[in-house]
Amino acid sequence: MSPFTFRELVAGIIRDVQFGPCVMFGLGGIFTEVLKDISFRVAPIDRKEAFNMMRESKASKILEGARGLPPADLDRLADILINLGKIGLEQDEVKEIDINPVVLEGSRPVAVDALVVLQSGKDSPERK
Fold first, then answer.
1. What's residue 58's pLDDT?
2. What is the H or E stretch that residue 90 is in?
3. Computed over its alpha carbons, how large is the radius of gyration of the chain?
4. Which of 24, 29, 46, 92 has the greatest CB tally within 10 Å of its CB?
5. According to CATH, what is the number of the domain 3-118?
6. What per-residue confidence (pLDDT) applies to 41?
7. Can you say whether the dihedral through the CA atoms of 34, 116, 102, 79 is positive or negative?
8. Is residue 87 packed enough to be buried (19+ CB in 10 Å), middle (13-18) or exposed (0-12)?
9. For 96, phi and psi rounded to 5 degrees?
10. DSSP-assigned letter for residue 53
11. If residue 21 lies in a helix (H) or strand (E), which one and from where to where?
């Protein structure tokens, strides 16, 4: 199987001190650190913003389908990004989520590995 058969993406959230929960998307696997092709948006995001994140990434070309591979199911990818933003807004104890890689199995995105980091009680933001 060709190494280009696997299309790896990354999706997640980080909790920024100034902006709060931010959604991230980009090239995943080893390419996350090598190419640093990551896009961020302050949560919540809507479908239009999720599509913009996908379009501005270098990953956009592999999402379109290449070398006979089917195009990615962009609606499902958008759902993942939108729902990550919701988790960040609704769950204060979640400090970050890193889903890496999200591989495209045909056109369908599949989370292969994920890390969820929780804040300790003393680090959690105060609710007002």
1. 80
2. helix 74-90
3. 15
4. 24
5. 3.30.470.20
6. 98
7. negative
8. middle
9. -160, 155
10. H
11. strand 20-27
How far apart, in whole angstroms, are the C-alpha atoms of residue 23 and residue 30? 20
Residue 95 phi/psi, 5-degree rounding, is -85, -40
**How far apart are the C-alpha atoms of 43 and 106, rounded to whole Å?**
29
Written as one letter, the residue type at 53 is M
Q: Give the containing element (helix H, strand E) for 59.
A: none
* Amino acid, single-letter form, for residue 38: I
Handedness of CA 16, 21, 22, 26 (dihedral sign): positive
CA distance 114 to 77: 15
List the structure tokens of 47.
């479908």
Residue 24 pairs in a beta bridge with 12, 40
CB atoms within 10 A of CB 110: 11
How many CB atoms within 10 Å of residue 67?
8
Assign 44 a pLDDT band (cuts: 50, 70, 90).
very high
What's the chain's length in residues? 128
